Amino acid sequence: TKHFPVRRRLRSLLSRTPTVVHAVDDVSIALRRGRVTALVGESGSGKSTVARLLAQLYPRTAGDIRLHGTSTRVRGGRPFRAYVRRVQLILQDPFASLNPVHTVRYHLTRSLRIHGNAGTGPDGLERALADLLTRVSLTPPERYLDAFPHELSGGQRQRVAIARALGANPEVLLADEPVSMLDVSIRLGVLNLLQDLKDRLNLAILYITHDIASARYFADDTIVMYAGRMVEGGDSETVTQRPAHPYTRLLTDSAPDPERITGAGADATGAGERGHGEPPSLIHPPAGCRFHPRCPHAMARCASELPPAIPVDDHPGHWAACWLFDPATVAAENGVAEEA
Ligand code: SF4
Ligand code: MG
C-alpha cells in the first residue's frame, strides 16, 4: 500500500480534510523466476507506483516486500541491501535514464563495479563489458562501448539500459513500459530480448504496460489494476481472451487487435492509455468497488462493499474482484432465470 501526502497548498483548496492520494491499496504480487508477470492498467492506475515500491525507491505505507521469503522491512538493513542488488528497474524512457555526457562504457562499468561484477585481472572488466553488450545483442561490442546515448537509436538505448541492469546480476527485472516510447517496429525485438534473457538467466520479470494485447503476447501471468487496486488476475491467455472483470472487458474491447504490438493500428504515443472514460480521483476514491461509477453491471452493494478476489471459473488461479462472481449473486441470478 502506498498513500502519498497531498501538498499543503493543494490541501487548502480542497473543502474536505483527506490528506492523502490512495495511489496503491492492498496490491499483492508473487513474482517467480522464469516467468513474466504483466501488470496492466491505465495511466494513474498505480502500476508505476508498484514498480517503484518494488524497486524500493520510496518506503511503502503498509505491507512488506520479501525476497525468497526474507522481509525488507528495515530500510538499509542487510536483507534490504541484498534485495536492491537483486531487483533491477528498467524505465520507459532510456534517454532520461542514461546520462547524456557519459558513454556506454561508463554506464556499464559503473553498474559492474557497484555490484562487484567487474571481473578480475587486466582483461576482466573488458570481458565483462563485452559480455553485457553481447547479451543484449549490441555487437560487436567495440562499436557501442564508446558511444554516447545520443549516438544510439531508441531501441539501442533501451538495450544499454537493460545491459546496465544485468550488470547487477539480478534475479528480478521490473520493466515499466519498457517499449512504449519506442517505434512500433522495434518493440517486438526488445520484448523478445527480455524474454530471451528471462529464459537464459532464469529471471523473474514484472512487465508493466497499458497495452493488454502485449501482455497476452509477452507475459505468462497477467494482473489488471484499476484505480490503485488489483481487479483481476490469472494466466495471460485466460485473462486476455476470457476476461471476467467488467473493467478488463472494457480494456480488451478497446484493444482488440493483438497485432498492435507489431505495428498494425498502433501508435507510439500511448493513446491506449486513454479513450475509455476517466479513472476516479484517488484523493476521494469511490467506496465499495472503485469501478462502480463506470460499471455497466453495478449493483446496489457495489457502491458500499469492497469486492474480494473471487475465483472465476475452472481455470485455476483466475480470479476477479467483482461481486458478479460471488456465488450468492450467481445463485440469485440463476434463481431468477429458472423462475422466468
Ligand atoms: Fe461492476 Fe460491481 Fe463488479 Fe465492481 S463489483 S466491477 S461495480 S459488478
Ligand atoms: Mg507509468
Q: Report the count of strand segments.
A: 12
Radius of gyration: 22 Å
Alpha-beta content class: alpha/beta
**What do we call the CATH homologous superfamily?**
P-loop containing nucleotide triphosphate hydrolases
CATH topology value: Rossmann fold
Lateral arrangement of strands in the main beta sheet: 6-7-8-3-9-10-12-11
Q: Segments where pLDDT lies below 50 for 5+ residues?
A: 258-275
- Kindly give the count of domains: 1
Q: What share of the residues does DSSP label as strand, in percent?
A: 5-15%
Describe the structure.
The protein has 340 residues and is α/β, with parallel strands linked by helices. It has a single domain (2-101, 148-287), classed as 3-Layer(aba) Sandwich (Rossmann fold). 35% of the residues lie in helices and 15% in strands. The strands form three sheets. An eight-stranded mixed β-sheet has the order 6-7-8-3-9-10-12-11, with helices on both faces. Helix 9 links the parallel strand 7 and strand 8. The longest helix is centred in the middle third of the chain and has 18 residues, at 184-201. Residues 258-275 have low confidence and may be disordered. Bound molecules: iron/sulfur cluster (SF4) and magnesium ion. Iron/sulfur cluster binds at residues 245-246, 289, 291-292, 295, 297-299, 302, 307, 322-324.
Features:
alpha/beta, two-stranded antiparallel ribbon, 13 helices, binds iron/sulfur cluster, Rossmann fold
Summarize the model shown.
With 340 residues, this protein is of the alpha/beta class. The protein is built from 13 helices and twelve strands. 35% of the residues lie in helices and 15% in strands.
